[in-house]
Design goal:
This protein is mainly beta and about 250 residues long. It contains 1 helix and 16 strands.
Amino acid sequence: MYTTAIMKNHLTLLFLLLIAANCSAQVNVYDGFETATLGKLWRTDRMVKTALEMQATIFRKGHSAAKITLRSGDVYESGDSKSLDTERDELCEVSKLMSVEDKIYEYRVSLFLPDSFPIVPTRLVIAQWKQYCPEDVCTDSSPVLAIRYVSGKLYITVKTDTTTQTIFKTKNEVRNQWLDFTFKIKFSRLDSGFVKAWLNDKEIADYRGATCYSSAKGFADKGYFYFKTGLYRDLMSEPMTIYIDEYSKKEVTE
């Protein structure tokens, strides 16, 4: 008779094998947010239904873009000894699109913060790449790569077992304009990992080194990574709105 621990280990292994099977095909996807409903590339389990609107007033290309409005109390999550309580409304790529450790991917996404977007010191993440933790027992759930906007500063961070590094920061005004991001990423616990980033066709970061957590933090020996975009912040009363357009992801060579 299996013990509970053995059963959990078997279920974890099965789930990882299913992910590996789904991720084996070469990824090449695009979403211009041109349909009245959200496309099949996305999960919405980290978002309240009223937060998302497919609208045709502000868009990067085509005729429409996704609009996400985060209001106080949306998808609340209590903090712990290391972090404050949070709230979020985020789109998350579906499981079959998860990136695989030591492969190289190119991501493109366009984000727009309106001129009314509040400038506050509250922690805010507008896009992030998370390392998948099969049993939710990992000792650090922070994103390994994140685009943040805090106190009027836009910056990008990389987090590993031992360090958090800011690989880009600007104090320039970024609201009321489309921010066209391109990332070329190799998630790896080895020094061969890298993150290259461009903003509006200008290279802004070229980081080389480890780009994910190791098994010492409770993660699987082979890492899988998923992309989210929207609004994730510490609690505050004021609403925030972001627009998202022209998302693509593909597997590439260096």
